[in-house]
Amino acid sequence: MNLATAPSTVDSLDTPCLLLDETRMTRNIERLNALMAGHGVQLRPHLKTPKSIEVARRLMSTPQGPAAVSTLQEAEQFAAAGVTDLLYAVGVSPAKLERVLALRRRGVDLTVVVDSIDAALAVARRAREAGDAIPALIEIDCDGHRAGVQPGNTEQLLAIARALHNEGACLRGVMTHAGESYGCDSVEAIADMAEQERLAAVGCAEAIRAAGLPCPVVSVGSTPTAHFARSLEGVTEVRAGVYVFFDLVMAGLGVCAVDDIAASVLTTVIGHQPDKGWILVDAGWMAMSRDRGTARQRVDQLYGLVCDADGKVYPDVLLAETNQEQGIIKVRPGSGAVLPDLPLGAKLRIVPNHACATCAQHDAYEVVRRGSPDIVAHWERFRGW
């Protein structure tokens, strides 16, 4: 969209659409940058949350990176914008190696992830055939959350490391992700998880080096553990993604406050059912996603917290139910709150459970700044794999 023809204020936007508070986003970025500087560790921001060139430029320490991605579509889009230091932070399948090599031929230092001998041999074989020693990290399972080599399985770890190093690829190091930190019930538990994450990665790196093999990179990270790690000794880089916007899951964990959440969905009141205590809006699950991440937390925020058009939260007023293109706003049961008196056509913001999932429903960010209704920019985002 040409900014000259863009809507000038929040009130003039068609809904539902995705709002991004640049003031809050900048504060979130600066907070984690300062924490990593205090630890003396490089931050490799994960770009899977924003999927936007404009946001990426504000996240990365240089225009070339470093950064992490979760799809090759992301890698290709960011490479086209000049980002050349990328980690494809999902286990790579053999069928995707042609796209990996195509990016590397364009000058992108793209690293892949493996967690088995079969995957390591597939990468090494194709690297040898192409004459390009594809760099790879070995994924470590620090918490049983997803893929990875068990930290105590030194035999498997070293077999994978040797397959990469000796058969044609480049053994770049190890990586892990404490996804179970999203289930912690206190900041202290998150800090404990961060130490578990660190020890798993550093211990595996030490085992690889003790076997006479290189392990220059020790990569850890999740947004919760990045914010509450007590020590990052032995770690070379930290990855985090959703911190750029935050969301209600992060607020429920105590990683941020609701006031830090930068992304929201703008919606319009389209009807009332006073006998039922409902306000109807034009943001359903197609605009919000079906993510109910806070349902597992102490406070269930249903499909999101309701705010006025300026972003001020209505206490205990929630997007309680969603259909495909309609949402139902209700008061939290037992709270004693009352529905705001909102006329037909009134604009509201819905703060999401999971920023990654909600942003994925939209093609662009309408950018605002704290305390102003003006739209200051329109930033495209992309989808797909």
Keyphrases for this structure?
single chain, 385 residues, alpha/beta, TIM Barrel, Lyase, Ornithine Decarboxylase, Chain A, domain 1, 2 domains, 8-stranded parallel β-sheet, 6-stranded antiparallel β-barrel, D-amino_acid_metab_enzyme, lyase, EC 4.3.1.27, D-threo-3-hydroxyaspartate dehydratase
Supply the CATH superfamily name of the largest domain: Alanine racemase
Strand residue percentage: 15-25%
Q: Using only CA atoms, what is the Rg? A: 22 Å
Give the low-pLDDT segments.
Answer: none
Which sequence of SSEs, written as H and E, runs from N to C?
EHEHEHEHEHEHEHEHEHEEHEEEEHEE
**Form type:** elongated
Rounded mean pLDDT is: 96
Helix content: 25-40%
Strand order of the largest sheet: 2-9-8-7-6-5-4-3
Outline:
The chain is α/β, with parallel strands linked by helices and 385 residues long. It has helices spanning 22-39, 53-59, 72-80, 97-105, 117-130, 154-167, 187-210, 223-228, 248-253, 285-288, 355-359, and strands at 17-21, 42-45, 67-69, 85-91, 109-114, 135-140, 170-176, 217-220, 237-240, 263-273, 278-281, 305-308, 313-322, 327-331, 347-351, 364-368, 377-380.
Describe this structure in words.
This protein is α/β, with parallel strands linked by helices and 385 residues long. It folds into two domains: 41-244, Alpha-Beta Barrel (TIM Barrel), CATH 3.20.20; 262-380, D-serine dehydratase-like domain (Lyase, Ornithine Decarboxylase, Chain A, domain 1, Beta Barrel), CATH 2.40.37.20. It contains eleven helices and 17 strands. It has an eight-stranded parallel sheet with strand order 2-9-8-7-6-5-4-3. A six-stranded antiparallel β-barrel has the order 10-11-14-13-12-15. The model has no long low-confidence stretch (mean pLDDT 96). It is an enzyme of class 4 (lyase). Belongs to the DSD1 family. It holds the Pfam family D-ser_dehydrat.
